[in-house]
Amino acid sequence: MWFFARDPVRDFPFELSQEPPEGNPPGPWALHRGRKKATGSLVSIFVYDVKPGAEEQTQVAKAAFKRLKTLRHPNILAYIDGLETEKCLHIVTEAVTPLGVYLKARAEAGGLKEQELSWGLHQVVKALSFLVNDCGLIHNNVCMAAVFVDRAGEWKLGGLDYMYSAQGNDGGPPRKGIPELEQYDPPELADSSGRVLREKWSADMWRLGCLIWEVFNGPLPRAAALRNPGKIPKSLVPHYCELVGANPKVRPNPARFLQNCQGPGGFMNNRFVETNLFLEEIQIKEPAEKQKFFQELSKSLDSFPEDFCRHKVLPQLLTAFEFGNAGAVVLTPLFKVGKLLSAEEYQQKIIPVVVKMFSSIDRAMRIRLLQQMEQFIQYLDEPTVNTQIFPHVVHGFLDTNPAIREQTVKSMLLLAPKLNENNLNVELMKHFARLQAKDEQGPIRCNTTVCLGKIGSYLSASTRHRVLTSAFSRATKDPFAPSRVAGVLGFAATHNLYSLSDCAHKILPVLCGLTVDPEKSVREQAFKAIRSFLSKLESVSEDPTQLAEVEKDVHAASSPGMGGTAASWAGWAVTGVSSLTSKLIRTHPTATSAETNVSQRPTPEGNPTPAPTPVPAASTTSSHWETQQEDKDEAEDSTTDRWDEEDWGSLEQEAESVLAQQDDWNSLGQASKAGQISHPERKSPESDWSSWEAEGSWEQGWQESNSPEPPPEGTRLTSEYNWGGPEPSDKGDPFAALSVRSSAQPRPDVDLWGEDSWEGLETDSRQAKAELARKKREERRREMEAKRAEKKAAKGPMKLGARKLD
């Protein structure tokens, strides 16, 4: 039934490529590239076509097929599959390239380094040692055509066609009949008398000497050329001369040859060979040895071949992490090798491991990941970031280790562009509000403000309107001087995200208060920002048609392109303050706990103020500064008292806590504005900050009084003056809408800028104000103690198993 017969070649699970045979090595086999049909993985296929009248060659090919199938060693060509029919033989092995082709290609690209050649020869000698000493086999075909190189640069010994037993059980060495291969035979084989004393490995070691000569000098023209070492390294010449000596008895065993070459100053005594030997035995090494090896590996990777790093080091690193408990020490070499991968390879090999690492509870692992996030963030897609990485990263905001909190904040610069609406505008803002309000480390509060300024352009328009002004205003009241600078820079970096009304009524009053800050760096940045906002207002005042252009980004959707300004204004905070943060955390872990209790007072202009830690300053002789500073101290003291006494609880409990104290925050806002002229057109806190107050966020301490005070009698609007400009035109004045006042207020023709007004400010009773503020603080303290007592009484004793959240 011939029509039921199937072609075994067609059913073979591997297929040959259409390219011509590679290298065309001498011998019965033709080497083809191929791939597996099921997976597409690359392989090499050795093909022998059975020809009539060539029975001897056919028997040699079948013997090689059998030997390669049964011999397994890391330095011998790896057998995968095979096919034997009446017409052909197919041997499928790992994807390899003939050594001659490989050396020629590398020579065109700049040549092989000596350390690569040393490791390649080491592998060939080790394979010979395995055959002679462990298997009792003589290879009988060591030459350039019998060595192949895989994709990692590993040298593999093949060409097992003429192998025979060292005991002579199979009748001695087979006849080759190929002149290209017979030129490597040692001279003693020509003596048929058998009187020459030799070892079983003598012939193979002679052929090894021929291989070494060809590796460094090119094809061997004749046996007499072996007398001249040529380009063979000096450290290898003495051992090479032993191999090609005329006396076969003195040729060393392959194992002893390796020992000689690995001795002090030997050709195979280098870092590359040591690294490879350690990787081969890594499974039996002690954990301490593995830790030390991976720590030193990163320094050596730059001098190692790329193919070796990608195909040998990388798999070992991945295996060490998943099964060897290597921990965070593998991250540095892992990401260094990852730079050599293509985007597709990175997604397949590195990203799954990185995602798994983020779920680790090892703090060293987490902080290393955060520090090196810049190296792999571009390979992470948005769904992976939002569902598998961000939920684990946010735990760092609540960590008790300041270094992890700091790195978590800085990592948001990279994660923010990939976060979805809820994670960015809700979850992240909750954590930022908590860090800026109550973190004990001043540098972390500072970096939180800087990070918010940099990611402000990614926030939605409604979130920007609720958060940015309040957050930066809070930062300007921070006792840590760099945090106040960061607040000013945050305003400047996001200047295009505020309406003119916010600039005039909310931002400039805050910045003006910083012009008398005790720190010179804060004052300098405040003046710079004030000039920027004033120039913006002045430009619109001169040309009202620019209003739409100036406010085009206020209600625009989040745009990554708007982040460039933030990077230029606040770049110092991530570089300079980053190192400052680490120093302060290491040297003064509890320094900021005292910062909140230090009242800031200005120093005289002649005395320099130390930075960045605020210290109590000497009393000043300027009565004007004292008047303004007492009002500022009153607001800061009340805020500090409230931050220290408030039971913050968890993020989920913040809403209840803030709603319960809403009336207290309103009274705080009234106290902070005592003695100052209030701004017109005020909005109630319920309408402005309702959603964020419910979450206990930025607006605490930045609420204004519900009942604006009327202007002093005799006050005249600036819009009523003719400032020396042209006659009023038909153009609408955009600033008229910013200054809506009650029409019932009288407008007598009195100049507020006159000398009488300044004299009234100077003669105001400061002692009465201080006494009033002290009484209010005392009343608020008693109210807070009463409310806390009521809460504790209502809650009752804690139940068994319950845990009080910080």
UniProtKB/TrEMBL annotation:
GO terms for cellular component: centrosome; cis-Golgi network; COPI vesicle coat; cytosol; endoplasmic reticulum-Golgi intermediate compartment. Residues 14-314 form the Protein kinase domain. Residues 587-601, 662-675 have a biased composition (Polar residues). Regulates COPI-mediated retrograde protein traffic at the interface between the Golgi apparatus and the endoplasmic reticulum. Involved in the maintenance of the Golgi apparatus morphology. Residues 763-773, 780-793 have a biased composition (Basic and acidic residues). The keyword Zinc does not apply. GO terms for biological process: inflammatory response; intracellular protein localization; neuron development; retrograde vesicle-mediated transport, Golgi to endoplasmic reticulum; spinal cord motor neuron differentiation. Its main location: cytoplasm. It comes from the Eukaryota. PANTHER family: N-TERMINAL KINASE-LIKE PROTEIN (PTHR12984:SF3), SCY1-RELATED S/T PROTEIN KINASE-LIKE (PTHR12984). Residues 631-648, 752-762 have a biased composition (Acidic residues). It comes from Cavia porcellus. InterPro entries: ARM-like (IPR011989), ARM-type_fold (IPR016024), CIK-Related_Protein (IPR051177), Kinase-like_dom_sf (IPR011009), Prot_kinase_dom (IPR000719). This is N-terminal kinase-like protein. The keyword Repeat applies. The gene is SCYL1. Residues 14-33, 587-648, 662-806 are annotated as: Disordered.
